[in-house]
Amino acid sequence: MKISDLSPGLGAKKKEKRVGRGPGSGHGKTSTKGHKGQAARSGGTKAPGFEGGQQPLIRRAPKRGFRPIARKAFAIVNLKQLGRFEANTLVNPKLLYETGIVKKGQIKILGNGSLAHPLILCAHQFSKTAIEKIQSAGGSVEVISASLKKK
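Predicted structure:
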C-alpha cells in the first residue's frame, strides 16, 4: 500500500471544530472568542457594512438613476374597457370612478382594443393610437387640464 492509494486523500476530511468542550479540546474556556469585548458577547457582532461610525460606503457611493419627486402616476384605461358604455355616452373621470374602472389618479386612455360605437371621452391624456381609433369610430376626444382639481 502506498500513500497515493489512501482514500479519501490526505487532508481531504478535516475534523469539525468543537468549541466549548473543555480544556482538552484546545477550544475550551473562551470557545475561540478571546477575552471579553464585543465579539465575545452573545449577539455581539457589528452589522454588515458598519465602518465604526464613519459614513458607510453604501451611503457614500453615488446613486444611479433619476427619481422625480413630483412624478405623475396615471390610471391606465384601454379602449377595450370602454366597450361597456352605450353609444354617444360622455365618459369622464367621474363616470370611470363610479363604474370601478379606475380607483384614483389622473386618467390616460391607451389604444389597446377597439371601439364598436362612438363615445365622447374626457381624460387627462390620450395616446396617439387611442385618438385615431376613437375618431375613426365617430367619437370625440377632450383633454382635461391637470390644474383643474377639486378644492
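Summary: The domain at 74-143 is CATH 3.100.10.10 (Ribosomal Protein L15; Chain: K; domain 2).
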